[in-house]
Each structure stands twice: as C-alpha cells, then as structure tokens.
C-alpha cells in the first residue's frame, strides 16, 4: 500500500453512509460506484438549467477547476500537477506515445487492458514490453527499464501491489513509475506524489459519473511527455486557444488536459468532496474488515483487501449471488465482490447465505 499523510476527517463513516439512497446487497464498487444524494441533486439541477437554456460554459470551467483542486487535495499533490480527462486508456496512451523508440516497459501480468494495450501498441517503434508476475515486478526492473506501469490494486483479484518495493527498485534503476489508482482511490489512502505519474478514473470507488479521470505528473516526468491530445482546453488560456494558427499550451500539467464532458464534472464535485471529508485509513479498515469476514466465511485465507475474488470459471457462484438479489461481478474466470462505505456486516451475511445454500 502507498502510505499517505493522515487526513483530518470532518465526517464520520456512519454519517457518510446516510448520503446514499441505497447500497444493501451492492457489492460492485469495483465495477461501478454508487452516486450520493448530492451528486444526483447536482446533476438534476444541471440538466434542468440546460433545459431552460441557462447552461454556461464559463460556469462549467469553474466546476472543473474546483474538482481539480479537490482531487489534488485528496491524493496529496498540488493542483498544478493534475491534468484532467475522461478515460484511463487515453491518459496511458499519452505516456505510451512519449516512450523513446526502442525503450523497455515492464508491466504486471493480468493488469487491466487500459494499462497494457497502449504500451503494446508501441511495438512498431521498437518499444519492448515485458510482463511479469506482480510479485516479481520490483525485482524485474533493470537499468534498461524506462518505465514500470501498474495498477495499485489489481482489477481482477483485488491484490494490492507492493508499491513501496516497486518505487525503491525504480529509484535504484532510474525507472519512471506510472501507477493506476482507479481501484484504490476512494477506499484507501493514496499519495500520488510518490509516483512520477498516476491515473485515476473516478466512476468506481469515488462514485463520480463516468467520464471524469485524472492524471497526476511530476515536473521531471512531465518534461518527458508529448501533449499528443492537445486541444483548446490544454491552452495556457483556453478561451484564447479556440482557434489557430499559434499554439500556446499551459506550462503546468494542464497542457495535458482533454476537454471535459461538462455534466459529468458537475456530478463529480460532491463525490470528490465527500471522500475528502473522510478518514480514508478508517474507511480502508472498514472495507478490509468486511472482506476478511467474507474470506473467513468461505474458508479462504484473509487477504486484507476490499475486493475479494475466487475461481469461478463456470460462473456458478456469480449466478448464486445474482439470483439472491446481490450485485457482484465476474472477471478473468473469477467471481468478484467489493465492499465499500455503504456496505456492512449484513452484506457479508447475505453473500455467505447465497454462496452456501
């Protein structure tokens, strides 16, 4: 786990749960998070304003900038290090396209394809991709490795990468680090400043609408990257960058911005603010406690994870959960459940009852 500075919470987990309309039996935050009352209210108000012809581009820009600042606070970086976009693969593609010809990238086997395909797509330039077991990732880095890219929490299994060891090995070998925190940010403390770059799509554990993603980047690593997605929103002054012929990009991470899908950011603002108000170490302990309780009931080793998965090639266990009215998922031949803020011990009991008829 990536250590992060302690955050002073202003909202208890008990009070935070009241922000959700539902959650009982929903064991799929790793697939799609749930919105809060505040997110739904903000999106309804925005839609109504749009319907009345009162939507304002300048107001949307203000919202996006507030969300940028809020996310920066959540992951312990300054706002000038945060770029905004819509999809993990696009942000990973920015990094992949900037890798020098013939360089080596090391990835963990079985990582989510949005953190794999963009790098494999650079083979025509002689970029070499080595995929190794997650547990061997740190030991696999050499002085020839330009980049190590990995998910902090693995999507299919919920395994938490040993980011401390990976970062130490990267520092020793002069390797850049890119960490996808999509399956981590929102349920555990994350310190984005510990990596050269991070990517996070916020529609899972943060419960924002799909289409709100973040890219954090250090100044040193940013100098290695090409703003291949540059458009008007990447301009030093976006409103003065709507037309050519000259291009004057922002000097900070905003030069990597992709024009935002405005309504999604309206819903993201209260979502990000909710998790900024929580003690994420406490939330991590809550989620892990539920995960370990499920493992105990299933006779599995305790994993200390919010995502619990097990072999289910035929989908029998996933069907049992679904037939019991629970929402779970299946990935890579495994049944997968996730425990989050809105879950409690009753959800564990419901899952065990479904799986042990």
UniProtKB/TrEMBL annotation:
SUPFAM superfamilies the UniProt entry points to: PLP-dependent transferases
Q: What is this protein called?
A: Aminotransferase class V-fold PLP-dependent enzyme
Query: Pfam families, from UniProt?
Result: Aminotran_5
Tell me which species this is from: Cryobacterium suzukii
Report the InterPro entries cross-referenced here.
Aminotrans_V_dom (IPR000192), PyrdxlP-dep_Trfase (IPR015424), PyrdxlP-dep_Trfase_major (IPR015421), PyrdxlP-dep_Trfase_small (IPR015422)
* Sample GO molecular function, one term: transaminase activity
- Annotated Aminotransferase class V domain ranges read 62-297
Q: Which PANTHER family match?
A: CYSTEINE DESULFURASE (PTHR43586), PYRIDOXAL PHOSPHATE (PLP)-DEPENDENT ASPARTATE AMINOTRANSFERASE SUPERFAMILY (PTHR43586:SF21)
Keywords from the named record: Aminotransferase, Transferase
The reply to whether Transferase figures as a keyword in the UniProt entry is: yes
